[in-house]
Amino acid sequence: MYTLEDSVTSIIKTLRMPSVTSVEITSYINRCYDYVSSQVLLTQLESSGVVNTIPGSLSVPIPAEWNYHRDLFSCEVTNNGPITILNSREHLRRIYADFDTVRQVGPIQYVVISGASIVYYPVPAEAVELVCFFYKKPEPLVAPIIGYSCGHELPEVIPVGLQPKIIESYVCWQIWARVEDGIEGRKVNTAYYLEQFKEAMVELEDTTEVGQSRRLVYRDSSWI
What we know:
By secondary structure, the protein is an alpha+beta fold. The chain has five helices and seven strands, in the order ααββββαβββαα. The protein has two domains: 4-42 and 141-211, no CATH class; 44-136, no CATH class.
């Protein structure tokens, strides 16, 4: 199994830069996970959470413990079926032009993520449970303070077979971009590892597309 130690050791051997520490490399690995999860809907990051609506309010804060990242793809009221998910508050305004000022009471028909809140409309008369499905943020890896030896495995956020290519090419690209910053002409190492990373991302997208959960496309009566 591919571990943090495997990754750090391989990158150190590839870079051959004594000034680059294992802690620094681990930081770049975490950045890699953050970047990849922002570009591809990774099935291992699918998650869910429950939150209660607030009587008289059309929104509720997204709970911090959800570790919410992106793409609410399903939402339903307990024992009352699914709710249509919209892309923006403006989309909701096209359906309910005065939703910001008029609190129409009734069962929730639509939800939208707006900043750090879940906006819902109409507003239920009493608090109800919203069961939400979404993609969470990847958990950060923590490097040991001394050395780089560690026993825990890299999380399978990225398929195991692609972890070395994606992680190592990303870290080497980022570090070489810093080293070659200011150099005139073509930045050879930066360009090489960037291309390797791009190729790995294409492979990742090809292997994960089938398993990705996405919300249903909303089509109103004017859709053709």
